[in-house]
Write a structure and sequence with these properties.
Layout: H1 2-41, H2 54-61, H3 67-72, H4 80-86, E1 91-95, E2 98-99, E3 109-110, E4 113-118, E5 123-134, E6 139-147, H5 150-163, E7 166-167, E8 169-170, E9 189-193, E10 196-202, E11 209-210, H6 213-222, E12 227-232, H7 238-254, H8 259-265, E13 268-269, H9 277-297
Parallel strand pairs: 11-12
Antiparallel strand pairs: 1-5, 2-3, 4-5, 5-6, 6-7, 8-13, 9-10, 10-12
Helix pairs in contact: 2-4, 4-5
The structure holds zinc ion.
Residues 172, 174, 177, 179, 181, 183, 204-205 line the site of zinc ion.
């Protein structure tokens, strides 16, 4: 027992000195870690990004501030980081295009679609997935990724989605509503891929998205609140359904509309800019006028 006590004492004595040293040593490390973590948690590290293409350099220097310049001129986006800078509040989501193994007609829907190749060594699995990016305000990108493992497949899909970003038109094309606010789509559009054909139709306010679930995610991500739909073909193959939905949404922009009629019907291209400052200014002006009136009265 005595030996143990002495050992304990020694053990207690040493740690005090060591702890002090450790504290001094660890004081600097946690701060650094916190800083690096803080940068990673933020939206996007703009200064850490090294731009490679001409457009990327222009975006980084602040010459291009609006993504409409790139999309309207048909410039190819070759860097995914560029989209992070121009649309700061961008969100990503994965679609359920796969299916797990299961008895009696298949299992649950999954994010990753797993396929296999038979080789001499055994089965060689591959994973593919579909990602969507958007800001709930007029911009949407859809991309596919495929790899031997799940994580790189997801990263590839998100990168491809950012490179494929496009904008849509919103409006109210429903004759039951006619409110001229951009809560639905301005006219009927349809898209096709393989046997799948999807038709999106404008709906009055309060309808919600009467669309298949994966297409609901897409329409929600782009900022459409009300829509009706109709599908033909093998909609169980989600790859084709998603691509058909994408081609339908792209037709919203490719259809020609006269500029005058766009304003009259309340059709909006891309994002809706919220004017928050104007009411405050009006209030200030009113106050100033009231003060002037008081002074005159005095
Ligand atoms: Zn409406």
């Amino acid at each position: 027992m005595a030996e143990e006590k002495t050992e304990n004492k020694d053990a207690e004595k040493k740690p005090v000195e060591e702890q002090a040293k450790e504290k001094e040593a660890t004081k600097d490390i946690p701060n650094e870690k916190k800083e690096t973590k803080y940068v990673k948690k933020g939206a996007f590290d703009k200064e850490g990004w090294k731009a490679k293409t001409d457009i990327g350099k222009k975006v980084k220097s602040g010459e291009i501030e609006n993504i409409d310049y790139i999309l309207d001129n048909g410039i190819n986006i070759l860097e995914a980081e560029l989209v992070d800078v121009l649309i700061p509040n961008i969100e990503t989501d994965l679609l359920l295009i796969g299916q797990s193994k299961g008895k009696f007609g298949g299992g649950q829907r999954r994010v990753f679609k797993q396929t296999q190749k038979k080789t001499r060594e055994g089965n060689k699995p591959h994973f593919s997935t579909c990602a969507i990016v958007g800001n709930h305000n007029g911009y949407i990108g859809i991309g596919f990724g495929k790899s031997k493992e799940t994580v790189p497949a997801r990263e590839k899909a998100i990168r491809n989605a950012k490179l494929n970003i496009f904008k849509i038109r919103r409006g109210c094309g429903s004759w039951q509503c006619g409110c001229k606010t951009p809560h639905s789509i301005p006219f009927k559009v349809s898209g096709k891929c393989g046997s799948v054909k999807i038709t999106l139709m404008p709906a009055p306010k309060g309808t919600g998205l009467t669309v298949e679930k994966e297409c609901q995610k897409i329409l929600g991500m782009v900022g459409i609140k009300d829509a009706w739909s109709k599908t033909i073909g093998q909609t169980g193959s989600k790859n084709n359904l998603v691509l058909a939905c994408e081609s339908a949404l792209r037709k919203l922009m490719s259809t020609k509309i006269k500029h005058d009629s766009m304003e009259g019907l309340g059709i909006v291209e891309g994002k809706i800019e919220e004017d928050v400052k104007e009411p405050e200014e009006e209030v200030k002006e009113e106050k100033a006028e009231a003060e002037k009136g008081k002074k005159k009265n005095e």
